[in-house]
Automatic annotation (TrEMBL):
The organism of origin for this protein: Fodinibius salipaludis
SUPFAM superfamilies: Ferritin-like (SSF47240)
GO molecular function: ferric iron binding; oxidoreductase activity, acting on metal ions
Family of this protein: Belongs to the Dps family.
Protein name from the UniProt record: DNA starvation/stationary phase protection protein
Domain Ferritin/DPS: 17-155
InterPro entries: DPS_DNA-bd (IPR002177), DPS_DNA-bd_CS (IPR023188), Ferritin-like (IPR012347), Ferritin-like_SF (IPR009078), Ferritin_DPS_dom (IPR008331)
Domain of life: Bacteria
Amino acid sequence: MEINIGISQGNRKAIADALSKVLADSYMLYLKTHNYHWNVTGELFHSLHEQFEEQYTELAEAVDEIAERIRALGYRAPGTFKEFKELTSVDEQQDEPDAMEMVRRLAEGNEQVMRTAREALQPANDAEDEATIDLLTERLKVHSKTAWMLRSHLE
């Protein structure tokens, strides 16, 4: 069935492609946050363990919303590690950082998701796609607050 939602096929494709990058970044940040939740140690263990759990839980819901928006636009949402690895801008490290390095890396990851989301705003704005604009605005709000809270640990 042809999609007729008031956004051209070309604009829907541009938005879906941009959202796919936001999805990949969000998923990779989810994975990193969950890893750090499991592996954090030290005197701040309890507070960071809890904070990281709140963050990865929020990210798990976000990736679902982003993927569903891509589907609503008529495109397949990427969903494999290979696709995410090709699309993401979030660095993946395989070492075992200390707690404050985890915090620093997660702050950087949230900032990267914000940069990717800002890039995705352009095609959404061009197409006057308010639903995507709203989704991206919410992501920017959440990641901005999360990055600030994480950076506050480092002061």
